[in-house]
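Marked as duplicate of an earlier ticket. Keeping the data here for the record.
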Amino acid sequence: MKAILSVCTFLVLILHLTQGCPWTEHKFQQYSRKCLTLLEEMGEKMVDDSVGELGVHFPEELYRLARKSQPQRITWFISQVLDEVSQLLEEDLVTVAWDEKKMKDFMSTLDTQLAGTESCVVSKIKKSKRLHLYFMKLRNETLGKMEDEAQAWELIRKEVLKHLKWVDLLASTRL
């Protein structure tokens, strides 16, 4: 009985790896587009400033590396990006004049997208320390160096939008 269970588990794993994940194939884009729309609409016009001026540079090389990876690793990378964004925006954002309902809808949609993406991950892969450190630096440098906290959060929102667009592109072209 134990051998049959092991064989069945193995076959399900192989099927999952070769057939892809229904979530990423059928739902990811829908939730991704909703997140992008809500993020764009919940605040004012996107600021022209860049976090690069603060010494925080978008980690394009991590996305390029992920793009060359196997689908399972790409899904894990996307999952980590969504988790980092969620943690970043869980702060008490009292200084920000974002539309509260759209912010709640955004976070709810992001959490659903994260849970769906995580359901596609068969085995845990070590998280990217560089990606985690980037998000920590984004938060600390932007909020620490700017006097206007509301403006700092607008810069962070702009950067998050960039990440979600890259994730959307990565998922639509590689999963």
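See parent ticket for discussion. The mean pLDDT is 87.
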